[in-house]
Specification:
Elements: H1 3-28, E1 52-57, E2 72-77, E3 95-96, E4 111-112, E5 123-129, E6 145-152, E7 161-174, E8 177-178, E9 181-182, H2 190-196, E10 202-208, H3 212-221, E11 223-228, H4 257-262, H5 266-272, H6 276-280, H7 282-287, E12 303-308, E13 311-316
Antiparallel strand pairs: 1-2, 3-4, 5-10, 6-7, 6-11, 7-8, 7-10, 8-9, 12-13
Region (Disordered): 281-300
Protein name: Flp pilus assembly protein CpaB
Domain SAF: 52-112
């Protein structure tokens, strides 16, 4: 073997040794940690829902207590509960009808509002005596809508008659129960419930001012009957088809046109009043009797009051 071949052989051996060394190093070297690529994800910005102020009880409030400012607290809710309050000024001084627990929202149903708060403009609350018959078997409840029927017993030339007196009247109170709530809290004991279930003796009705005289006359001179009707029933008699009763007090003869128009005001009509013959239709029947002389009462604008037992009658002359 010549020298050149020996040199090449030695070089190959050295190259193999170097390559083997590097291979060993690479096999024993620690593996590099994987590169984690972090991607930023843009999240949509969600707007917070608006809230509203709600008034809660800051502590337990017992029925009958007068609400003070320190009994109330404010909180933020998604919405105000039905018939709830958003201002403490609307509650301070109110009387609590039922016990209110702490953190409970205060609503109108928990307060004693008073019957007058349930009257509309131009209405009056009138109390009438009732029994099981008048009150439709004592099944009438505060808040019900009724028709008031009037029965006049036979007297004089007027026979017995019955007709609707007032349509679509709201009951404000019946016995001890009112639209504002029961007079006493409900009893848990069945015997106490039977003891408190006394028959109703009075009913309070919400009537228009011009109808007060009708109801008072009918109460004193006949019998009333309350007939329950559906709350959505809007059927009412057409008053324009029937003659209007003449008032007891006539307007002055020298009134100006504006003053004559003012006589139709509900307050003036109530003050002028009406008589029992007008309520029963007695005058109209006498005037419309064929072949009979027309007798118009009240030409002088005066009347005399006739009292028969508990019945009172105003006769014009």
């Amino acid at each position: 073997m010549n020298n050149f071949t020996k040199i090449v052989a030695i070089g190959l051996v050295l190259l193999a040794a170097v390559l083997g060394f590097f291979a060993y190093k690479m096999s024993t070297a620690p593996k590099p940690e994987p590169v984690v690529v972090v991607q930023q994800v843009e999240r949509p910005v969600v707007a917070s829902k608006p809230t509203q102020t709600v008034i809660l009880a800051a502590k337990d409030i017992l029925a009958g207590q007068v609400i003070q400012d320190d009994m109330l607290k404010q909180d933020q809710w998604p919405s105000v509960p039905g018939r709830g309050f958003a201002n403490t000024e609307d509650l301070v001084g109110k009387v609590v009808r039922f016990d209110i627990a702490a953190e409970e929202p205060i609503t109108k149903g928990l307060l004693a509002m008073g019957i007058a708060a349930y009257l509309s403009d131009g209405q009056r609350a009138i109390t009438i005596p009732v029994d099981e018959i008048v009150g439709a078997g004592n099944l009438v409840a505060p808040g019900d809508i009724v028709d008031v029927f009037f029965t006049l017993n036979s007297k004089g030339d007027v026979g017995a008659q019955s007709r609707m007196l007032l349509p679509q009247v709201r009951v404000l109170a019946y016995g001890d129960n009112t639209v504002d709530g029961p007079a006493t809290p409900p009893a848990n004991d069945e015997r106490q419930q039977r003891t408190r279930a006394t028959p109703a003796r009075i009913a309070m009705l919400a009537v228009s001012l011009e109808d007060v005289n009708k109801l008072l006359l009918a109460t004193r001179n006949g019998k009333l009957q309350l007939a329950l009707r559906a709350p959505k029933d809007e059927n009412r008699p057409d008053m324009t088809l029937f003659p209007e009763p003449e008032p007891v007090l006539k307007g002055k003869p020298d009134l100006e046109p504006a003053q004559l128009a003012a006589l139709a005001d509900a307050g003036n009509q109530a003050y002028a009043g009406m008589s029992l013959p007008d309520l029963s239709g007695e005058l109209q029947e006498k005037e419309d009797t064929p072949g009979a002389p027309v007798v118009k009462q009240g030409n002088s604008g005066k009347s005399v009051q006739i009292i028969r037992g508990t019945q009172i009658e105003n006769v014009k002359y």
